[in-house]
Design a protein that fits this description.
With about 575 residues, the chain is mostly beta strands. Among the domains are: about 45 residues, no CATH class; about 80 residues, no CATH class. It has a 22-stranded antiparallel beta barrel. The chain has a three-stranded mixed beta sheet with strand order 16-21-22, with no helix packed on it.
């Protein structure tokens, strides 16, 4: 132990001395070797351990003794009788039956009648055939109206749908007849209209529509609509509308292209002024709208453009239209705050049928031309305040050329009809005028979904119009608002309410006589509130009863100048569902 310690200590001392000699200057101090002697003290770990391996006899330890087992069987009395296990029964609810066919019938005040029959039949699980028949009619009965104000609307439609693995297509066709009366005449012409039996007019719409959708191809969808719309005054038009969508991959990117082809050709049956020929109109429109969608994290951007060429028919001008088509959205805070905006434009194809659905009291003397929606710029924000409350706020600015406006026809100064025979010539019908309109729009929407059974919503819209040719943007309100609510209770009771508000509108009284037409005055049509409530009860899967209350406030407001509506209305009925 002493030697070992010496061997370790000596090099360490030598190394230390060398270091000191290297780092210090030479001095007179002499170095000596100090030997430290420590007495040896043995420990247990230093003891020599003897490893002994015991000897064993494998023959003695590996032999197993045989063991004999004897079972003494003694019977034991027991009352336990085992039985087979039996699964507990779970009562299965009967699946609800849904019926695709139904018949609805309702009747109410003012002789209002509504009825609808819809039947469908499936063939081989890939095809189905359906038919629909609807009827709406009213006896009128509006106070202070000297002419019949009843109306009738009848529609018959057939449809066939076929679904296959890679393609789904459908065809349908129908005929619709609408009958309305020009009852908005002023009392000063009462004597002139007493002997006139032609106080109403009929619209007829004969149409065929085909749709097809493809899977796993570049061509995604296509639709074609063919209509023949006419009235009993020999006004009529033919309208062919084709739309298609193609998705083309270009350099690992997909370009969506919408294709549009429209043909419109029509004429008015008569002229409001006997000295002027009845107008004719028509055009052939072709357009393409390619667009590319860019997605980056929370940003979605659609970049595209639209190009249209319109070939004029019947003295209509030919034009080339180019529009931007850019829209985008950015998720600022997931679904809580989403900003969006866009700059778009389009050609709006107007038609006699489209105008007649917006205003049923047109004279059969109108001229039709398309509207150039030069651009529509908007910014908005939508999202959710909570999981149950959503919102949408939008500001926009639009510029439209040849926007269609409804304005009253001229009054005859002589007291006789403007065209000498028909009742619509007393200033109680409407014509279409066109103007360049710029509009500033503000929109607010709020949707509340308390649970699966209760939904509510609010929509308010403000518009400021600036016209170029006309004194006002005729019959366009500055304010529109609506509130709705729907409630469903345990698939039995259901109810709903809708409240509409339309602000003040402007129209014009024009007096004509002795070949002179002069504006008599600009009139204001008061705004109105229309409250509608409905409720119903599902007696069974087949039978449902309902009750509708319309115009609850009872205000016989003017929808158009001199065209008041029915007051408080009540209508009740039932729906029966069935299968073949």
């Amino acid at each position: 132990m002493y030697k070992t310690f010496q061997y370790i200590l000596t090099p360490l001392v030598f190394l230390l001395c060398a270091t000191v000699m290297y780092s210090q200057e030479k001095d007179t101090i002499q170095t000596d070797v100090i030997n430290v002697v420590k007495p040896y003290t043995p420990t247990i770990s230093d003891a020599f351990k003897v490893k002994t391996i015991p000897t064993t006899d494998d023959n003695a330890t590996s032999t197993k003794k045989p063991v004999d087992y004897n079972i003494l069987s003694v019977p034991v009395a027991s009352t336990f009788i085992p039985t087979k296990g039996k699964a507990a029964l779970v009562e299965r609810e009967k699946p609800e039956l849904y019926y695709e066919n139904y018949f609805t019938l309702g009747y109410g005040s003012y002789g209002n009648l509504v009825s609808e029959l819809y039947v469908t039949k499936e063939f081989n699980r890939i095809g189905s055939f359906g038919a629909r028949l609807t009827q709406e009619m009213s006896d009128g009965g509006i106070d202070d109206k000297i002419l019949d104000n009843s109306f009738t609307n009848t529609n018959v439609e057939l449809e066939y749908i076929k679904r296959q693995r890679d393609i789904t297509w459908s065809v349908k066709g129908g005929l619709e007849r609408q009958k309305y009366n020009w009852y908005g005449i002023e009392n000063r012409y009462e004597n002139a209209t007493n002997d006139n039996e032609q106080v109403g007019h009929n619209y007829y719409d004969l149409y065929a529509i085909g749709d097809v959708a493809f899977d796993y191809t570049y061509v995604k969808s296509a639709s074609v609509t063919l209509r023949r719309f006419y009235d009993e005054f020999e006004s009529g038009e033919n309208h062919l509308n084709f739309k298609g969508r193609v998705d083309l991959p270009i350099v690992d990117q997909e370009i969506t292209t919408n294709v549009r082809l429209e043909y419109l050709n029509g004429h008015a049956g008569e002229s409001y002024f006997q000295s002027i020929d009845a107008p004719e109109y028509g055009n052939l429109l072709f357009g393409v709208s390619p667009a590319y969608q860019l997605r980056r994290d929370n940003l979605t951007l659609n970049i595209g453009a639209s190009a249209y060429y319109m070939l004029g028919i019947n003295d209509t001008e030919s034009n080339l239209y180019l529009y931007p088509n850019i829209t985008g959205s950015f998720r600022i805070v997931d679904d809580v705050v989403i900003a969006y905006g866009g700059l778009t434009g389009d050609v709006e194809q107007n038609s006699y049928r489209k105008f007649s659905q917006a205003n049923q009291f047109l004279s059969p003397t109108i001229s039709v031309r398309p509207t150039d929606n030069s651009f529509n710029a908007y910014l908005g924000m939508l999202g959710k305040f909570t999981n149950d409350i959503g919102y949408n706020v939008k500001l926009g600015y639009t510029s439209e050329r040849d926007k269609a406006l409804f304005r009253k026809n001229a009054f005859p100064a002589s007291g006789t009809s403007m065209n000498g025979s028909h009742v619509y010539g007393y200033g109680n019908s409407f014509t279409v005028v066109y103007d360049n309109i710029k509009t500033i729009q503000a929109l607010v929407e709020l949707n509340v979904e308390m649970n699966r059974n209760l939904k509510m919503g609010l929509r308010a819209e403000y518009m400021n119009y600036q016209s170029e040719l006309e004194d006002e943007a005729w019959n366009l309100p500055n304010i529109k608002a609506s509130v709705f609510g729907d409630y469903l209770s345990d698939n039995k009771w259901f109810a709903g309410a809708k409240i509409f508000y339309v602000g003040e509108r402007k129209d014009q009284n024009v007096l004509t006589g002795d070949n002179v037409t002069t504006p008599e005055s600009t009139i204001s049509i008061d705004g109105y509130v229309d409250v509608n409530v409905n409720a119903g009860y599902n007696i069974s899967n087949r039978f449902t009863v309902f009750l509708n209350l319309n115009n609850v406030t009872g205000d016989s407001y003017e929808r158009w100048s001199n065209y008041n509506v029915q007051g408080f209305q009540i209508l009740g009925g039932a729906t029966y569902k069935f299968d073949f």
